Amino acid sequence: MTSPLVTYQLNKTFGAHQALGALTLEIPFGRVVGLIGRNGSGKTTLLNLACGLLLPTLGTCSTLGRPSGELAAPELSVLGIVAQAGQFINWMTVAQQLQFHASFYKNWDQPREQRLLDELDLNPARKIDELSPGDLQKLGIILGVCHHPKLLLLDEPMSALDPIARQSLLKFLLDLVREDEGTIIISSHLLSDVEKIIDWVVCLDRGELAVSAPYDELQERYAEWIVTPASGSELPRKFAEPWVLAREGDSRRARLQVRLPSSETIAQFSAQHSANVIDSRPLNLEQLFPLLINERSLAQ
Amino acid sequence: MLLVINHHCGVPAYRQIVDQIRLLVASGSLKPGDELPSTRALSEELSLNPMTISKAYSLLEHDGVLERRRGQTLTVKARHADDTQASKIEQLRRSLAGPVGIARQLGISPTEATRLFREMLNPPKP
């Protein structure tokens, strides 16, 4: 299956500001991709490039097999976009906006639209300029998904939704993956929500790629250790091993975040520092996030 | 099928599925010949990407816990008694990693810890 989004040395510069620099990545088909990164890391720029709203400064970006600046009806009819700040025709009602939007698509799924209006609890009779930020987000979501997109791009789609609405949305997105057999890229700061549905992580840092990997691989790559000294000794202030990424605690007990090395390396570590690893636990996405960002800086 | 996925503990979803199915098989809740839900059905039930379910099922098939019969349906594979026992021990070992870590952190001696484990294994006194 063709990758739905491929970039090669993609650079986007706005005047003096480089939003993306030499970004090369290939999103695998059929995944639910979590696009994460600090504010200003280039996530929105990447999504806007992917749907052709921006053109590359250098390098290439291909969406659904076509250069992103040349997307035409065949690609656009299966591309879904949920922008961070939706742009609607404010004098319309929800129903009118939906109807207007639907008119552009041959395969608009009316039952899906109704189902979403019900599940997200959005009244179609309401006027858009009277909607709360949460309701506007709900509308943006419905507009982005009823044509059965093969590639769905969501930029911070949940920030204004209450916890119950977020749950509904997450569940729906997974139903979508199953039904439409497409790919979803979701950019969100709500890592504890997003980690419930993603199976691939793309992490950006200052316009460059920090990580692009299956989520379960990342979960298995890192761990948190509790380390105590062998009797009679003290733990060093700092562990020099490059795979020890963070350290907390004192000379008698440390909590380390590590990129798991081989068992031989772990044995060497214990011997060299006269230390025992008494516990090892996996990390969730919120905990992995700073490690992924820092790994990139280390690699430079 | 009663599987529960914890999304925040850092253990990959596919691994949780594999471990829980192994437990169901080893404990007899799933018997040889029992059919497992389709990838689609289970992905819907657990709210996971079908790819994740596929990965778990493939692993279990590869490990000989499940087999594909009649071309399509996944069923529990009958296993040799020794294999089953070894598998049970392995599962208990994995689930003890957490408590062992805690015992070490608390500085509880192996003797004391074993005594506690034995005490908890015995049925509660009426």
Q: What labels would you give this structure?
A:
heterodimer, A: 300 residues, alpha/beta, Rossmann fold, 2 domains, 6-stranded mixed β-sheet, 4-stranded antiparallel β-sheet, 10 helices, 14 strands, elongated, B: 126 residues, mainly alpha, Arc Repressor Mutant, subunit A, two-stranded antiparallel ribbon, 5 helices, 2 strands, 57% helix, 6% strand
Helix- and strand-based class of chain B?
mainly alpha
Instruction: Give the biggest beta sheet of chain A.
Output: 6 strands, mixed
What name is given to the CATH topology of the largest domain in chain A?
A: Rossmann fold
Strand content of chain B: 5-15%
Q: Considering the protein shown, what is the CATH homologous superfamily of the largest domain in chain A? A: P-loop containing nucleotide triphosphate hydrolases
CA distance, first residue to last residue of chain A: 33 Å
Query: Main interface pair?
Result: A-B, 30 and 24 residues
Estimate percent helicity of chain A.
25-40%
Task: Please provide the ordered H/E string of secondary-structure elements of chain B.
Answer: HHHEEHH
| CATH C-level name of the largest domain in chain B | Mainly Alpha
Kindly state the percentage of residues in helix of chain B: 55-70%
Strand-and-helix sequence of chain A, N→C? EEEHEEHEHHHEHEHEEHEEEHEH
Instruction: Round the Cα radius of gyration of chain A to an integer and report it.
Output: 23 Å
Count the domains of chain A: 2
CATH architecture of the largest domain in chain B: Orthogonal Bundle
Tell me the number of strands of chain A: 14
Supply the CATH superfamily name of the largest domain in chain B: Winged helix-like DNA-binding domain superfamily/Winged helix DNA-binding domain
Determine the N-to-C terminus distance of chain B.
33 Å
Average residue pLDDT of chain B: 88
Plain-language structure description:
The complex is a heterodimer of chains A (300) and B (126). Chain A is an alpha/beta fold and 300 residues long. Chain A has 2 domains: 5-206, Rossmann fold, CATH 3.40.50; 221-299, no CATH class. Chain A has 10 helices and 14 strands. The longest helix of chain A has 18 residues, at 163-180. The two termini of chain A are 33 Å apart. With 126 residues, chain B is mainly alpha-helical. Chain B has 2 domains: 13-76, Arc Repressor Mutant, subunit A (Orthogonal Bundle), CATH 1.10.10; 81-121. Chain B has helices at residues 13-26, 39-46, 50-62, 81-105, 110-121, and strands at 66-69, 73-76. In chain B, strands 1-2 form a two-stranded antiparallel sheet. The longest helix of chain B has 25 residues, at 81-105. Chain B is globular and about 50 Å long. The model of chain B has no long low-confidence stretch (mean pLDDT 88). Chain A binds chain B through residues 30-32, 170-171, 174-175, 177-178, 192, 195-197, 199, 215-216, 219-220, 226, 228, 276, 278-284, 287-288, and chain B through 7-15, 40, 43-44, 47-52, 55, 97, 101-102, 104-105.
